[in-house]
Design brief:
Elements lengths: L1 H6 L2 H9 L4 H8 L8 H9 L2 E7 L5 E7 L5 E5 L2 E4 L6 H4 L8 E8 L4 E13 L2 E12 L6 E6 L9 E4 L4 H9 L2 E7 L11 E7 L6 E2 L5 E5 L7 H8 L2 E7 L6 E11 L2 H5 L6 E13 L5 E7 L10 H9 L5 E10 L4 E8 L13 E8 L2 E8 L9 E6 L5 H8 L6 E4 L15 E6 L3 H16 L7 E7 L8 H10 L3 E7 L14 E2 L4 H7 L6 E5 L2 H13 L7 E4 L21 E6 L4 E6 L5 H7 L17 E6 L2 E2 L12 E3 L4 E2 L3 E4 L2
Parallel strand pairs: 24-25, 24-28, 25-26, 26-27, 28-29, 30-36
Antiparallel strand pairs: 1-2, 1-5, 3-4, 4-7, 5-6, 6-7, 8-17, 9-16, 10-11, 10-14, 12-13, 13-16, 14-15, 15-16, 18-19, 18-23, 19-22, 20-21, 20-23, 30-31, 32-34, 32-36, 33-35
């Protein structure tokens, strides 16, 4: 206990108690905090191009600023000493304290490999622009939430004075904050600062872009994810509350530097709304500096921290608050006829809020209502993300309950309900040429992907050749003709081919279409040299099966063939599916919410069918693993997907429409 009390100050111990950190773990953790730097830390700090310091201004407010220089600017002549040959950025502009005895917190992060070490100490003396620091505490940190980046040293060193006092109203400041996936934080304890655990601390925070949020009242908020459980930063906030943030834009060298007061929100409800958060930290800025050139390097994102998928953003929190029962009301703002059977519906949020982002190729689950009750459907978003609206391009089916309602009864000004976009039919991230093969309404994800490629190309993405090959009966049934032909005239990397199986009297070969035949492998062989392509298929089942089989027969690897299956089942032959799994002859399936238990056998079908046979009425829609409506939590046991679903459920959840028990005891949340 004495070792822990000496290492951690009262604020840190208070947070540790509230977070219910085990005392034996803290005894162990205290042993990692050393009064001097081990050799690996000394070497680490000496070889980094940049370090981040927590320093105080004359009012006692912490600021977090970088220090950098050519190789050798940082040196450790002894385990108790670190010498910086350069003054940190913005020292003069912010009036930061570097007088002997001033407390300093320091964190170094190697962006190329996620190594991170920290040091707390005091200024021993300054000379000729250099600073000698005396070490009080030295300790390492785990690599959690650090994004790996490839670094390029800037041609010219940035000027410390290249910036200005600013506010959150500045668009540049908001852009940097709202797009940040990394920031550095300085904090301090209350009372006289004599170094050691009662001094200033500098640390790193990371998350998905959008994890640092700007609130309507001018404050900032960020989540506190699971970490090393020592709570150095939160302990300082508990003790004093004054903090400083350095929010970099690694692509441009810009940064937002601010100081303010922070508080910890321990509300389980608020933390629970932000995926991955254990608590929320709120910051009220008191002074903000926008620096246009503060970094000696640019750093391009190479790999996000792998566990970031299990964390959220403030946009997701705000959007979730707008949904009821998982759905949100959208208004049809326009309706455009694309062909004799396909009409596009443009949707914007009826509540006036932002739309949830999507990736080109994903679909939107919607809920409609008629005299017979609710109707659940999923339709591909037929355009790339634009931040304004969704476009659903829907074919009217003669016996389609949802499509007839949309086409015949709903129009501009009417509302429908929509969940969040989802789906895994997305473009790969290789540089290989793309072949898009679509038939009929299967054109919708292809148009969206093409739209996404056009936007990416405008933003500087590498060029990729695209062969957009579409099959239709004739011009009357062909959707998006004008849109696609305009793009083909504009971009020489887009090659557009159209096959008509039943040309109309007004159709002219070579003008309205390129081929008069059903799309087949023989036709494709005449269009493509074949080699190194990524193929994307979507359309009627017979169309897709014929092309998939033909591509495989030509030796195209399965990993190069991607498809969106509108129906039930798979394109792969049984011997191409996952290796056979040993399933139990019988299993007991428990439905936790309904408090029902039943027996499953091989004749019972999926878990969804098993639930229905037991008298339950679980939510579902597509029955093919496409929409996610049937997802529920897996509480115990393991399940097997006899056929691959089209989307991946959230962690800890399963799609009941396409799973069967793999253990003799399975419990799910229905």
């Amino acid at each position: 206990m004495a070792q822990r009390d000496h290492t951690f100050h009262a604020g840190e111990r208070a947070v540790q108690r509230r977070a219910e950190v085990a005392s034996d773990w803290l005894e162990s953790a205290a042993g990692f905090v050393r009064p001097a730097m081990p050799q690996q830390h000394r070497d680490f700090f000496e070889n980094l191009p940049m370090l981040f310091l927590g320093l105080l201004d004359p009012a006692g407010r912490p600021w977090c600023v970088p220090v950098f220089g050519p190789p050798g600017y940082s040196a450790s002549p002894s385990p108790e000493t670190l010498v910086l040959q350069r003054a940190p950025v913005l020292v003069d502009e912010l009036g930061l304290m570097l007088t002997p005895g001033s407390s300093v917190g320091l964190v170094g992060v190697d962006l190329t490999n996620r190594r991170r070490n920290r040091m707390n100490g005091r200024v021993r003396h300054t000379s000729g622009g250099g600073i000698t620091l005396a070490v009080d505490q030295s300790f390492g940190n785990c690599p959690q939430y650090i994004q790996t980046r490839s670094q390029t040293v800037a041609r010219a060193e940035p000027s410390a004075a290249a910036g200005r006092s600013s506010s959150l109203a500045d668009p540049a400041v908001r852009r940097i904050i709202e797009s940040a996936d990394t920031f550095f934080i300085a904090s301090r304890a209350a009372g006289p600062l004599e170094g050691g655990s009662a001094g200033v601390d500098a640390s790193h925070r990371g998350g998905r872009p959008g994890f640092l949020g700007i609130n309507d009242d001018g404050s900032l908020s960020f989540p506190d994810f699971s970490g090393n459980r020592m709570f150095n930063t939160l302990g300082n906030i508990e003790s004093d509350g004054r903090i400083g943030l350095f929010v970099p834009d690694f692509e441009t060298g810009e940064a937002v530097v601010l100081t303010g007061r922070a508080s910890i929100d321990w509300s389980a409800e608020r933390a629970g709304a932000f995926t991955g958060a254990e608590r929320i930290v709120d910051v009220r800025p008191e002074a903000i500096w926008y620096a246009t050139a503060t970094l000696p390097l640019t750093a391009t994102l190479a790999e996000p921290w792998p566990a970031l998928e299990a964390t959220g953003t403030w946009d997701e929190v705000h959007l979730a608050a707008l949904r009821r029962d998982g759905y949100r009301r959208f208004r049809i703002v326009s309706k455009h006829r694309e062909s004799d059977a396909i009409t596009s519906f443009y949707l914007t949020p009826a509540d006036g809020g932002p739309i949830a982002p999507h990736v080109a190729g994903q679909f939107l689950p919607i809920r409609l209502h008629d005299d017979d009750g609710p109707i659940l459907r999923s339709y591909t978003i037929s355009q790339g993300p634009n931040g304004r609206d969704y476009r659903l391009s829907i074919k009217r089916e003669a016996h389609g309950r949802a499509s007839r309602l949309l086409h015949d009864r709903l129009g501009r000004g009417d509302t429908i309900e929509a969940a969040s976009p989802t789906g895994d039919f997305l473009l790969d991230d290789s540089a290989q040429p793309i072949v898009m093969l679509s038939g009929g309404v299967g054109i919708t994800p292809m148009v969206a992907m093409l739209d996404g490629l056009v936007s990416a190309r405008r933003d500087g993405a590498p060029r990729r050749e695209v062969y957009f090959i579409h099959a239709a009966r004739n011009s009357a049934s062909r959707a998006f003709r004008g849109e696609l032909e305009a793009l083909a005239r504009q971009y020489d990397w887009l090659h557009l081919f159209t096959a008509y199986s039943a040309p109309g009297t007004e159709d002219r070969l070579g003008h309205t279409h390129d081929i008069e035949a059903r799309l087949s492998m023989e036709v494709l062989a005449g269009l493509l040299p074949f080699g190194g392509y990524q193929f994307y298929l979507c359309g009627p089942e017979s169309f897709m099966r014929a092309l998939y089989t033909g591509l495989r027969d030509m030796g195209i690897d399965r990993s190069h063939i991607h498809y969106e299956f509108f129906g039930t089942g798979e394109l792969e032959a049984p011997d191409e599916l996952a290796a056979t799994v040993q399933l139990p002859k019988r299993a007991t399936v428990s439905f936790a919410h309904s408090k029902v238990q039943t027996e499953w056998t091989a004749q019972s079908g999926t878990l969804l069918e098993t639930a229905e046979a037991a008298g339950l009425k679980p939510s579902h829609n597509c029955r093919s693993g496409k929409c996610g409506t049937c997802a529920t939590r897996l509480l115990s046991g393991n399940v097997h997907y006899p056929r691959k679903p089209l989307i991946s459920p959230a962690e800890g959840h399963v799609l009941t429409c396409c799973t069967v028990p793999m253990d003799e005891q399975v419990e799910i949340g229905l």
